[in-house]
Amino acid sequence: MAYDTQPKASHFVDGAYLEDTAGELIEVIYPATGEVIARVYAATDAVIEAAITSGRRAQAQWAAMSGTERGRVLRRAADIMRERNHELSVLETFDTGKPLQETLVADATSGADALEYFGGLAGSLTGEHVNLGGDWGYTVREPLGLCVGIGAWNYPTQIACWKGAPALACGNAMIFKPSETTPLCALKVAEILHEAGAPAGLYNVIQGMGAVGGKLVTEPRVDKVSLTGSVPTGRKVYAAAAEGMKHVTMELGGKSPLIVFEDAEIDNAVGGAINGNFYSTGQVCSNGTRVFVHSSIKDAFLARLKGRMAGIVMGDPQDEATNIGPMVSQRQRDIVEGYIAKGKAEGATLIAGGETPEGAGFYIQPTVFADVTDEMTIAREEIFGPVMAVLTFDDEAEVIARANATEFGLSAGVFTRDISRAHRVIGQLRAGSCFINSYNDAPVELPFGGVKASGVGRENSKAAIEHYSQLKSVYVRMGDVEAAF
Ligand SMILES: NC(=O)C1=CN([C@@H]2O[C@H](COP(=O)(O)OP(=O)(O)OC[C@H]3O[C@@H](n4cnc5c(N)ncnc54)[C@H](O)[C@@H]3O)[C@@H](O)[C@H]2O)C=CC1
Questions:
Q1: Mind listing the GO molecular function terms for this protein (predicted)?
Q2: Alpha-carbon span 85 to 215, nearest angstrom
Q3: Mean pLDDT to the nearest integer, 169-175
Q4: What are phi and psi of 416, to 5 degrees?
């Protein structure tokens, strides 16, 4: 293999690669072939201790710098990421199996956006002066301290930056634990931040499964935990963090509705449904996997959708012509196959896909089911794969109620040409990240996150600053102190 996917060592701690082969072996598998392309070891207690000690030391040093100086480091890191975008994208494709066509534009570039945006904000994180009628007060925006980021496997570079950039901008240090399925890319983020001038230990990356994540979450010297993962893991991590009264951000799963009204521009709605179901082979938390189509346009919608699916190019993800890559792992493909079987068994109509191709790699066909009802398993549970469920509706109030009838609340989308209806409906959908005549855009300037079981807190935008800093308030008396005795 021309590209060397084996990292220099498993962890990046205190400004350098660090190895400890006493940890559990993690084999990194290239999803397109099933080959082992790298080996790393889960962090031992010694590695965790080194990450915590160096993180706390670096945090004190970093917080003593001005916001402008900190921001300069983040913006330099953004520039380095952009210069190396091609190389980083190829690695992201090896790590995840996502097609290079996507990774070139959505991963290191999105990470660089976050570093640039929060680098720009860092110098403007000030408090307030408060007039108290003679006396006065002021607030200081302070860092939380040592933050832990725990990542999912679908966007390893992006998640490492979406958590790291606001944390560092606010003057915190971070220990990031990538998903054990995709351990490679975050190491590059750590390398780049170090090269850009971040003090040694400020952004440490350590590997491991849930057990390593669990140790970090319960560590008393950790002040905040930000998780991207599934709802069951979120429940465990949130509960463990609560024991130590730690700050949390939870970016969890979804089963989001995408509503297509009868007056929608059908090609755009079909495009939105494709982006919201098949990008990254369906492994996107905000996907609009319940596509509610007005019954009067169901046939036209399905016909256009089927036509557009002839444009699927499934194959070698390193080939830029490929637009559908494999699933991230055998395990994830097995899960998706199970849901497709349930869809068939519970009586949904298979419109497209539904098969697992022969041969190496964890490929599965992008799949569309129609005539799906609210009770079917594929309409209720997060699949995290390329499976679109098309349901029909007749009435606005009815579809809003059905769209909201889920424990999740990450995203929601509406396609309609009626501007009043668009805002009226979005106003009633219980979701954190919404779209009108679009789907799955995630610019760094807009808050991202869920309501209900989909999460707590927001990533990106100025809102993320609230989740990586805290206010100290100071009362200043100008006169004498009056006391009862
Ligand atoms: N809302 C969002 O921003 C996103 C949410 N997701 C969600 O992530 C899920 C898929 O990712 P997976 O990696 O399978 O999720 P997962 O929940 O299995 O694992 C997520 C991370 O948590 C770690 N972990 C597991 N148990 C832990 C514990 N007890 N304590 C601390 N850490 C622990 C894992 O090692 C991994 O790094 C999907 O459900 C998806 O919806 C994925 C991407 C974005």
A1: betaine-aldehyde dehydrogenase (NAD+) activity; metal ion binding
A2: 33
A3: 99
A4: -165, 155
User: Are residue 404 and residue 461 in the same domain, yes or no?
Assistant: no
**Confidence at residue 2, expressed as pLDDT on a 0 to 100 scale:** 67
pLDDT tens, residue by residue, 407-437 = 999 999 999 999 999 999 999 999 999 999 9
The verdict on 116 and 60 lying in the same domain is: yes
Residues 227 and 112 in one domain: yes
Q: 329 CA to middle of ligand 1, Å?
A: 14
Residues identified as active-site: 251
| Domain housing 175 | 11-252+454-472
Q: Name every protein residue with a CB atom under 6 angstroms from any ligand 1 atom.
A: 150-154, 177, 179-180, 209-210, 213-214, 217, 228-230, 233, 236-237, 251-253, 285, 382, 384, 410, 450, 455
Judgement on whether residues 232 and 274 belong to the same structural domain of the protein: no
* Domains of the chain: total: 2
User: CB-based contacts of 39: which residues, under 8 Å, 6+ apart?
Assistant: 6, 25, 26, 27, 28
**Residue 363 in contact with residue 327, Cβ under 8 Å?**
yes
Q: Examine the domain organization and report whether 120 and 229 are in the same domain.
A: yes
DSSP state of 21: T
**Quick one: which of 461, 432, 458 has its CA closest to 444?**
461
485 assigned to some structural domain: no
| Gap from CA of 230 to ligand 1 centroid (Å) | 5
What's the CA dihedral at 164, 412, 210, 334 to 10 degrees? -130
- Residue 106, pLDDT > 80, answer yes
Residue 446 domain-assigned?
Answer: no
Which DSSP state fits 122? G
CATH code, domain with 184:
3.40.605.10
300 and 240 in one domain? no
Distances (CA, A) of 351 to 200, 306, 369, 397: 54, 8, 6, 27
| CA proximity to 305, closest of 352, 237, 356 | 352
Beta-carbon count within 10 A of 371 CB = 15
Residue recorded with tokens 């992008």? 366
* Average pLDDT for 74-83: 98
Question: What is the domain-level CATH number for residue 342?
Answer: 3.40.309.10
For residues 235 and 273, membership in a common domain is answered with no
> pTM score, two decimals?
0.97
28-54 confidence digits (pLDDT tens): 999 999 999 999 999 999 999 999 999
pLDDT per residue as tens digits for the range 2-15: 689 999 999 999 99
Distances (CA, A) of 80 to 72, 162, 189, 246: 12, 16, 10, 33
CA of 244 to the centre of ligand 1 (A): 21
Q: Percent of the chain having pLDDT more than 70?
A: 100
